[in-house]
Amino acid sequence: MKIALITDTHLGARNDNPYYADYFYKFFDTIFFPYIKKHNINTIIHLGDIVDRRKFINFKTLQDFRKKFVDRIKDMDVHIIVGNHDTYYKNTNEINAPRELINHFNIYDNPIKINIGGMDMLILPWVNSTNEEKTVMMLEQETADIVLGHLAIKGFEMNNGYMSDVGLERHMFRRFEKVLTGHFHKKVDDGQIYYLGSPYEFMWSDYNCPKGFHILDTETREVERIKNPLTIHHKINYNDELNDYSNYDYSQCKDKFVKLIVDKKKDYYLFDKFIDDMYKKTNVYDLKIIEDYSDLDASTVADDIAEKSEDTPTLLENYINQTETKLDKNRLKTLMKSLYTEAGDVEV
Ligand SMILES: [Mn+2]
User: Fold this and answer.
1) What class is the 2-228 domain?
2) Span from the CA of 182 to the centroid of ligand 1 (angstroms)
3) Burial 293-307 (b: 16+ CB within 10 A, else e)
4) Ligand 1 centroid to 181 CA: how many Å?
5) In the chain, where are the structural domains located?
6) pTM for the structure as a whole
7) Centre of ligand 1 from the C-alpha of residue 197, in Å
8) What is the pLDDT of residues 104-133, one digit of tens each?
């Protein structure tokens, strides 16, 4: 039996931004649902963070969710593990979005052992102060073939370049054949614990980070990755000494957030035309131009900032790296990162 595994869909992400919603549902319309239909897959396990907001839901996001997602899986065998973005309170999973929105599916807001297709699975939803003891006890005592969860585990790369330093210890999971989990959006593994990664991009930190979903075969116990080739973030390194932009193919900028990093700009007229044409010929959602000042022979630090600060988290990290302080820089970075993420969630 084959099971589709998907996680961290965060529907309604980026303040319910419609461009991101279009991009998310393009994945469901053209990649995910065609795949599971073609392969007669009738069982889905969602490993948490099905929606983005923890406290409430936007009606447009809710309608899309119902029509473009829930209605298409309503006759399937669906299992949903509650993630941290699904829960209202920080210290308990008791009130959660799946329970309120789609209670007719199997929803797991507490640790439990289940069996699907003859395979014993230990299900571990988001760990908080209420269920931590039970989670640890089940990890120590329960027998199961695999663990499926929405887990924070120390020592994994959360986003490009960011390591997790809070959560459960890896050794707690070593008794099990495989651990498959949501939570961090980058696909990483240590050969036993697998962060499956989000199915699509959310932020610039997802740029160049492969996305997709997985198929678990309960007979062979293999986990197969299905790639999602769709992206929403696109970077261009502009250099008119090396490249000719007169016949530029703008199709790669269509329906994208674009960052144009200017390495060399000799011909100002051509540059302006390039920008004008970008707007005229393609539906670019947003264009950010980042000038590199290396032409001005600025100091190495300024070069560094211009070159490496293509997104805010990187800028914060570079700033902390260059700061003279006795404080723990990794803790500072984690704090800045969580502030940045929290600020992104604030209603405008
Ligand atoms: Mn998530």
Assistant:
1) alpha beta
2) 7
3) eeeeeeeeeeeebbe
4) 10
5) 2-228, 233-345
6) 0.85
7) 9
8) 999 999 999 999 999 999 999 999 999 999
